[in-house]
Every structure is written in C-alpha cells, then in structure tokens.
Amino acid sequence: MVVSERLSKWGMRIYPPLLFQRIWVVKIDKGFRGATVTINKSIFNRNYNNSIFGGTIFSAADPFYPLLFHQIFVHKGYNVIAWSKSSEIQFLKPGLTKLQFKIRISDEDIAEAEHVLNTGGKYIKAHPIDIYNTSGEVCVTIMNEVYLRNINFVETL
After folding, report:
1. Torsion of CA 42, 44, 47, 49, to 10 degrees
2. What InterPro entries does the entry give (predicted)?
3. Average pLDDT for the chain
4. How far apart are CA 6 and CA 28, in angstroms?
5. How does 116-136 read in b/e, with b if 16+ C-beta sit within 10 Å?
6. pLDDT at 157
7. 104-126, pLDDT tens digit by residue?
C-alpha cells in the first residue's frame, strides 16, 4: 500500500506494540530515506535493573528498514514484500535513559537493491542501527537483515 511519510509516521506512532512500549517515531524522512525513533523509558518498559527492557529496544529497531525499503519501492511502482529476515543485537550499555536512533538509506543502497530486485528478484542485506542514550553513547548495535522480494520478477533463461 502506498502511503505518505506523515501517515506512515502517525500509523507507527499509534501502532499498539510500539505505543505501549513507549516507542515514538519522531520523523520519517522525505522519500522514506530515513527515520528517527526514540524509546522513552517508563514503567511499561523497565526491567529488573531499572534499564529499558532489551525486547523493547529490539522491537523499536525491527520494523523500520523493511518499512522504508517497502515504501521506497512501492512509490517507484514495484510490487514488493519486505520484512526483517534476521537480526543480530549487541547490548553494550544499559539503557538507563531515553534512547534514540536514526536510520538513513542512501541512493547507493536504493540503487543496489533495485538492481538486485530487477536481476534476481530477491534482495537480502544486513543494515546497521546504532542506538544512543541521552549522553550520545552507543548502548546497542543491531544488524537488521532485510529481505525484499519483487513479486512481479520473472526469471528468464
């Protein structure tokens, strides 16, 4: 489904799995080239050690690369499916404060994905996410492997 950046931002803001964990989409960049997301610490997402629960952090990062890639290609006229195929997460410091991350998709990333979708039908690549605390320290790093499939791709021999 083709949606605007604004509708996508608000849809993700009120999406219950994100909303109830205090995950807030600050911005979806023009052309779906990026997103800025915060994770607000609250009683709903604190763990025993008074830091943000790791599952909340992972939930915040999981959907955004597939969402952005999907919208980029749908706006280009492609019929694609997108999801996170796998992720690797490393907790470096406890999330004792509000956390924030930014995702950016470059022209080179889009060109590479488009080439792969047009020649092989399936794009699979890991993309990094660094999540920062309010002091600017990296607390979590994630490698999110994105899977895109061009549904209309027909392989020719």
Report:
1. 30
2. DUF4442, HotDog_dom_sf
3. 96
4. 7
5. bbeeebebebebebebbbeee
6. 55
7. 999 999 999 999 999 999 999 99
Of 6, 8, 151, 141, nearest to 68 by C-alpha is 8
Q: In the numeric block, which tokens belong to residue 26? A: 């600050």
- The mean pLDDT of 30-55, rounded to a whole number, is 96
What one-character DSSP code corresponds to residue 52?
Answer: B
130, containing H or E segment: strand 122-132
Q: Quickly count: other Cβ atoms within 10 Å of residue 6's Cβ.
A: 10
Is the domain covering 5-150 a CATH 3.10.129.10 domain? yes
156 CB-near residues (< 8 Å, 6+ apart): none
CB atoms within 10 A of CB 81: 12
Domain layout of the chain by residue ranges: 5-150
pLDDT of 156 > 80? The answer is no
Q: Nearest-CA neighbor of 39 among 115, 107, 140?
A: 140
Residue 79: predicted pLDDT: 96
